[in-house]
Amino acid sequence: xxxxxxxxxxxxxxxxxxxxxxxxxxxxxxPDAPLLRVDNVSTTFHTPRGDVRAVSNISxxxxxxxxxxxxxxxxxxKTVLSRTLMGLQxxxxxxxxxxxxxxxxxxxxxxxxIDGQVPENxxxxxxxxxxxxxxxxxxxxxxxxxxxxxxxxSLNPVQRVxxxxxEGLRVRQGMSKADAxxxxxxxxxxxxxxxxxxxxxxxxxxxxxxxRQRVMIAIALACNPRxxxxxxxxxxxxxxxxxxxxxxxxxxxxxxHMSVLLVTHDLGVVATRTDRIVVMYGGRVVECGNTRDxxxxxxxxxxxxxxxxxxxxxxxxxxxxQTIPGRPPDILNLPPGCSFAxxxxxATEKCHQERPELEAxxxxxxxxxxxxxxxxxxxxxxxxSDASEIGVDSVRD
Amino acid sequence: xxxxxxxxxxxxxxxxxxVSIICFMIIHLLPGSPSEAILGTGWTPQGAALxxxxxxxxxxxxxxxxxxxxxVLTLNFGQDYITQTSIASTxxxxxxxxxxxxxLSQLISLGLAIPVATFAALRPNKLFDKLANLGSFGLLxxxxxxxxxxxxxxxxxxxxxxxxxTASYVPMSQGLLTNLESLLIxxxxxxxxxxxxYFRVFRADLxxxxxxxxITMARSKGISRRRILFRHAYRPSSVALISTIGxxxxxxxxxxxxxxxxxxxxxxxxxxxxxxxxPDYQLLQAIVLVTATIVIVVNFGLxxxxxxxxxxxxxx
Lengths: 397, 316
Known about the structure:
The structure holds 2 protein chains of 2 kinds.
Chain A: E1 25-26, E2 36-47, E3 50-62, E4 67-71, H1 78-86, E5 94-105, E6 113-114, E7 123-127, H2 133-139, E8 144-147, H3 161-173, H4 177-190, H5 196-200, H6 209-221, E9 227-231, H7 239-256, E10 259-264, H8 267-271, E11 276-281, E12 284-290, H9 291-297, H10 301-308, H11 349-353, E13 359-360, E14 367-368, H12 386-390
Parallel strand pairs in A: 1-6, 4-10, 4-11, 8-9, 9-10
Antiparallel strand pairs in A: 2-3, 2-5, 5-7, 11-12, 12-14, 13-14
Helix pairs in contact in A: 3-4, 3-6, 4-6, 6-7
Chain B: H1 2-29, H2 34-39, H3 45-55, H4 61-73, H5 87-122, H6 127-140, H7 144-158, H8 176-210, H9 213-220, H10 225-263, H11 268-277, H12 281-309, H13 311-314
């Protein structure tokens, strides 16, 4: 990963924000361009009580075939961030600053002026942050899809689940009703729903929570997106079902060569399933890097606290689980310094006064924001039993 | 859905039986007796006994009820001893204008309320929404008879429909246009009354539906706004509206009666008021029974519609 403060400019400036639509000069992205480039993104809500910056200066990248985890407590801005990346924030009362560039599959349109040769799998930059909804619709579902947090409220209660899956296929891919139904039943089978023909006709209230989340995943996968945004996909589910759903997502990610952005509060979830981790606190990135670097060599005390508060099998029974003292910060009233300082045992006067910026470690792509970081440690080489070495029991059956 | 339909159907039958018993008892609960009404000044105990025997009034109450029910089910409401005509023929004349008023006012009010509420709900708290809200709130507080009175000048003078709302009711058989002209004032008044209720209910429901997570989910599939509105938002939003139509039906009956009185329409309402002042208990009984049955059957139909629209309601 490049430096989050000064991202490498692989995409020419004039190209960002260009939706491939009529009489545009089309410049293709290099084939190895990141799928999603989030550059200095902030989301501000204009409320009657004043402006609230729920997400501040976030930068990271998601490359193709990569799984990136976004971790943080409730209220850390994860959900706001994932909706912002999706372009789902309302038009009114919300401002999104910065740039969210998505590498979109190029489909030739009349009036396009091609710059140079057309590559084999042509990609063009699509700027999400300032796109109109009508342009976003060209990306939603077919390029980037979302698995919503709560399967109880995210499915339309008065529509058969089959219709909700096949709708995208019919509207976006122009499939006939019969073909769409066939494909929807196929998808239901792939997400592990028994007797899919019967379930195709079911209403959401006739399915269990785990089943509904599987249906949500089938809906998201329907049009073969290249990026899947999973916003706490297992929060409302039993632990055993959680593991099943996460394994399913992992399998599907491999099978469809998707990139996945996995948003969660559970470090166990991201421990073995992600390539990279972004730790958020108070709407900011406080640490990010390769999963192994973050787990073994985390420098930010908040990451340490999060890791310590994750239950492990190696803990002796009936022992007290470590918790992080205090409460998550009130984003309406963030402290001037490091937002974690009030809860941090290493905090000094400087931490309360001045906000630390992200700084690089010796590990490539590993950054942290802290005035009094934990000592640097060397990340051991990868082994087969990574999860147990990391000390976190990943949610895995 | 099958079981739901059966359940509602059984419920419907029970309600109708209860209504018929109440209507039957009206005559027995009211002061005076049929013999007094029929014989008038020529009443003698012997004459009354003879008449009661002829009319079957000496039978036990349950037998009287069953006989009466049998007649009513074959739409035989008997002979009116006051006007010397069959009650069925009176109803046949009085029902059409009332049904016309109800059906047209419902179609007009729904036809206006749904698009106006949609327009308002798509941009809540913006100018159009605020104006529509304010207007509907104002109209909600004005009773139907005041609206009718206020409509006379605009409709008869400005729109130049002089025969509207006067005693010159024209039945549909004499030309639809003149018929509609003569009913214009009560139709407009009743439509306004229903419109404000439907607008407010549907707008509120649509606004809350559009904020549901499943609407955001539908958007994230990349489907058009129109499709989201019609396919995803309308159906869950219409349940409360349909229930409101059912509740409004009962209120509409009395509203129609008032409107008919004020606008001089010879419908059921006018007949009812006449029957009360006469007093003509037989006619009264028949009118109460018929209107109650219509309201109940319409509500039954709306219940089925609700069950069809929201499978959570009709789930077996």
